[in-house]
């Protein structure tokens, strides 16, 4: 899709009924995100989410849909010990129905990404605001604003591409920097969330874009239920807006 210049429409999903709805609405990639800790479990971070939770929700999603490509988050602690632990846990997620796993972080996960890709596990990287590191980052805030931070994100993107990651989420990154990083890559497609319209695709948390999450609404979220006739219509409108480049708009960017 990157080669053809077609935008990748990605959305989180955690159960079979919504997976079927996202399939019908034309979503390309489903992310079984560890955001389920926040939106399903009512936790204040993703840190308490376990491998058992991710396996269970991946099984639910994979029963519900046929066409969308399924990516599952590796939860906090499930890959941090190194490549062998990551492979063992990735294998559980793949057996549950994931077709790719997502790993947060830059330089410290490069070796793990390479190890998994070499062994037949496609990997989605995730840089910028990485919620599993919230206690170190000091909150959910934009990353890569200063020149040091920007240089680090540029270098991490190239290293992750080199390691074999096929997709990379960039979260809460200035739009100009995300565009520059996207243009610098050759094989890895970028997926933005709070990273501007010039990424190769976009992702949002389902409960955010349907306006059902009771917590604070981030700047980069649009409620697609506004003016929609149904949930399926809202998801279809999101897909259309990503494909025609009208979402995200200037007001959603950093
Ligand atoms: O868990 C999640 O939903 C995510 C996306 C916000 C990228 O990681
Ligand atoms: Na996540």
Automatic annotation (TrEMBL):
Listed transmembrane segments: none
Protein name: 3-methyl-2-oxobutanoate hydroxymethyltransferase
GO molecular function: 3-methyl-2-oxobutanoate hydroxymethyltransferase activity; magnesium ion binding
Record-linked InterPro entries: Pantoate_hydroxy_MeTrfase (IPR003700), Pyrv/PenolPyrv_kinase-like_dom (IPR015813), Pyrv_kinase-like_dom_sf (IPR040442)
Protein task: Catalyzes the reversible reaction in which hydroxymethyl group from 5,10-methylenetetrahydrofolate is transferred onto alpha-ketoisovalerate to form ketopantoate.
GO CC, one annotated term: cytoplasm
Residues at the active site: 171
Organism (species): Azoarcus taiwanensis
Cellular compartments annotated: Cytoplasm
Cited SUPFAM superfamilies: Phosphoenolpyruvate/pyruvate domain (SSF51621)
Top-rank taxon: Bacteria
Annotated pathway: Cofactor biosynthesis; (R)-pantothenate biosynthesis; (R)-pantoate from 3-methyl-2-oxobutanoate: step 1/2
Cofactor: Mg(2+)
